[in-house]
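P.,

For your records, the input lines for the assembly:
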Amino acid sequence: MVTIKDVAKLSGFSIKTVSRVVNNLSEVSPETRQKVQHAISELGYQPNTMARSLVIGRTNTVGVIIPHSAEYIFAHPFFTEVLRGIAEVLSANNHNLLLYLAYEKVPYSRVFIQRQVDGLILMSIPIGDPNLHGIHESGVPFVCTCRITEDDQITNYVDADFTGGVEQGMEYLLSLGHRRIAILPGPMSLVSVRLRLRGYQNAWRKHRLAEPEDYVLEGEFSSESGHALAVKAMSLPNPPTALICGDDLIAFGAIQALKEMGYRVPEDISIIGFDDINLARFSSPPLTTVRQDTYLKGRIAAETLLTLMRGKCPSSPRQILLDTSLVIRNSTAPAQNL
Amino acid sequence: MVTIKDVAKLSGFSIKTVSRVVNNLSEVSPETRQKVQHAISELGYQPNTMARSLVIGRTNTVGVIIPHSAEYIFAHPFFTEVLRGIAEVLSANNHNLLLYLAYEKVPYSRVFIQRQVDGLILMSIPIGDPNLHGIHESGVPFVCTCRITEDDQITNYVDADFTGGVEQGMEYLLSLGHRRIAILPGPMSLVSVRLRLRGYQNAWRKHRLAEPEDYVLEGEFSSESGHALAVKAMSLPNPPTALICGDDLIAFGAIQALKEMGYRVPEDISIIGFDDINLARFSSPPLTTVRQDTYLKGRIAAETLLTLMRGKCPSSPRQILLDTSLVIRNSTAPAQNL
DNA sequence: AAAATAACTGACAACGTTGTCATTAAATTA
DNA sequence: TAATTTAATGACAACGTTGTCAGTTATTTT
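Structure tokens returned:
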């Protein structure tokens, strides 16, 4: 292994001077710099990251924590986009990205105390995660890409406005004349799902309409679940004329189930998704959906974290809510009397 | 920051003895071990990873390289699955995962020479990547999740048998009576696409049939591209009765385009995809596709790398080709005379 | 009882870098 | 000209850990 010592010996200068050249400090004469650089490229020298980190007390590395219990996070299309946003910002700022699968027993903050990372991004935290305590205690700069409670006032977060997003979808369905609107929000164990439900309830209240009963159909973020729930919805005594879904996968499954049952989408039943994944344009019919910019979520999370890492951690948390927008395609139509 | 020194002072033992306890070495008496452990948990001590790595010369970290020029890799459903396979194996073996976006100018091997990682997984390498030279030279243990040439005999790789996969699809279409089969293989800049094409050609040859002309329609791995190419295919003087696609996204786009043009799938035109992503079951009609196990690809790549890292790098490369299987759903039917 | 072995424990160097401070030579100022 | 500043460089300690090896007990063997 080529070390700074070898470069010093070959160039005839001291270790410290080589270090100055490597770190591009100004206090080196041009000739010296050139000679040292020549020796560096001659030997193919690269500084040892571990040794440097040990001295300077930083690693220029950010940890991204993915709760492993939630496997569907990995499988979900939005995951990639958030990660890409994070990776690009970190890369542009010369920071590395350590990806951790967090099992419940292992406290996230460990990796910070061990000086592996200078900060953390928590990608999807279970409600009541006991690790958050340790995080706060250890003083890690961290940012969540989700909220930990419906009215989180504790963590730094960047998240989509799920409540507002569902309200947008509901407004549209109501404007089309739908009054029997069921929601397939996803798993209620997730805060984001509870926030979606809040949007659903807000919409009814805002229009001074009574929220229909039995129209909240909890499930998973998957097409399989959407399929099953759509079947269940249509077998209700008073079946809905529209379904608003917690994500696009649920919507895809629901559409297929409806077709199989002989309903036409959107003529008989309207469907709205959430996320606007790439494939939403290519379903049959193309999906009307509430768009959230997951790539941007990742970028902003990373940028926020870098800011936190540079300055002291502020007393009040940084909380950012990203707007959603309704993308109208062909899975929605005016309500018919069935 | 709590260091091993603090633990030594509090427990009354030497630094070295604390180190022995931390590393769970046997040469410590039970009482000593207990006292030291008490001090450790009292202080909340965690060993400094950088200092340890510096001494032992390893980081227990694996780098995963993603060429950034290929943005679609991030966006592609298979990416997540490979990454999940890698992450799970590394996690189970107490190794960390550093994710790198590789820009063309930055040689991958740098991160190895800098001792940030003990090995590398290269997720999708452009043909003729100049960095491979540096990789071989630096002696990094590495594994590719793809081949770098159609007959790669150099790198360690784990990849799907694209040629065989397309042959499976072709066999099925031919058995259904199709003779006008066009292929939408994806971007020819990728080796995997050239290998798919090879499977297409093999099938014709094996059946002693002349390969039809103008039936290779190059494009991207996206639904948009599939849509455009399907339109192009059907406007040929002698349009095909079946399309075999390089991935499922292309197939989805193609199906939509065909529907828009008034064709029925599969009655008029048969479609086969590649990958079997989760959503393949939920397209309309459900997609017949060649399944590759991308999650397994990731797992095996990581396991292979760990093996390489443990032993010396063998002289002959480890090359693993994973079988594919045809999943028959409803986008394929016997050929009709159009 | 003496000698040999085993079981623990600790002092100190080493890993490869950067930070602190001293030293030297050159350039500027008084 | 002498005194002061500036620029360039290097010696050495420090970062927090592990490896080496020597030392001290306790235990076993002769």
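Two observations worth noting. Residues 1, 3-5, 15-16, 19, 22-23, 47-56 of chain B lie near DNA strand D (CB under 10 Å from a C1'). The radius of gyration of chain B is 26 Å.

Regards
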